[in-house]
Design goal:
By secondary structure, this protein is an alpha/beta fold. It has two domains: about 140 residues, Rossmann fold (3-Layer(aba) Sandwich), CATH 3.40.50.1000; about 70 residues, DNA polymerase, domain 1, CATH 1.10.150. Helices cover about 40% and strands about 10% of the residues. It has nine helices and six strands. It has a six-stranded parallel sheet. The radius of gyration is 17 Å and the shape is globular. The two termini are about 10 Å apart. The mean pLDDT is about 95.
């Protein structure tokens, strides 16, 4: 079927923010008395906090402590890290080119809405994205496919008419669970082996942009 829409992850895909998220979790956990290292948290970035907390510290996301830690992580991320983040080179231009080719653009991110908007602004992408699906819109976060499914529905695309672009194994798994092929970026910090299951792997937005006409996003005759 003809490609009609592209669904992007944001953290680690359009914006260089994965390390910042990990450091915010480490600080919030430490303040709550849990000594969890950066090395333990970093490989979990990309899944939602509802899954990260149990995996990193054995804390239920719906427990009072889990909710408190998650709120504090958000405060730390927004105040200490977000103002210093930058988009990856080529992120906005890639979106502009795809939009000019008539493709619908959506984001499917585990981030909460109050973080998603400023992250998109950093990438100069907020005005280019047609539809947004955040962690607030789905029952289950990545690697479950719920958020990708919401983005698909909002774009009005069948799975075979869309392509996902992400940077973590959780993006690849979520896309596959929704029946959507996934392009993966190395810029989020994962190896090609970690990203197995992606239909193609690129260094980041600029690499995909430069290779666009030989990529799975190329215009079909």
């Amino acid at each position: 079927m003809l490609l009609r829409g592209v669904i992007f992850d944001v953290d680690g895909t359009l914006v260089d923010s994965n390390d910042a998220h990990a450091r915010a979790w480490v600080q919030a956990l430490r303040e709550a008395g849990h000594n969890v290292s950066f090395a333990e948290v970093r490989p979990l970035i990309g899944m939602g906090g509802d899954k990260l907390l149990p995996a990193a510290a054995g804390i239920g996301a719906e427990d009072a402590e889990g909710k408190s830690i998650a709120r504090r992580r958000g405060e730390i991320f927004r105040t200490q890290f977000l103002p210093r983040l930058k988009a990856f080179e080529g992120a906005a231009e890639l979106l502009r080119v795809l939009k000019a080719r008539g493709l619908g653009l959506a984001v499917a991110s585990s981030a909460k809405k109050q973080e998603l908007t400023p992250l998109l602004r950093l990438a100069d992408a907020d005005h280019l994205i047609d539809e947004r699906a955040s962690g607030d819109d789905a029952e289950e976060s990545k690697p479950d496919p719920d958020i990708v499914g919401v983005a698909l529905a909002r774009l009005g695309c069948a799975p075979q008419q869309a392509m996902m672009v992400g940077d973590t194994p959780y993006d690849v798994a979520a896309a596959r669970g929704a029946g959507v092929p996934c392009i993966a970026f190395r810029c989020g910090g994962w190896s090609d082996a970690d990203l197995s299951g992606a239909v193609a792997v690129y260094d980041g937005p600029l690499d995909l942009l430069r290779s666009l006409d030989a990529s799975p996003l190329r215009e079909k005759p």
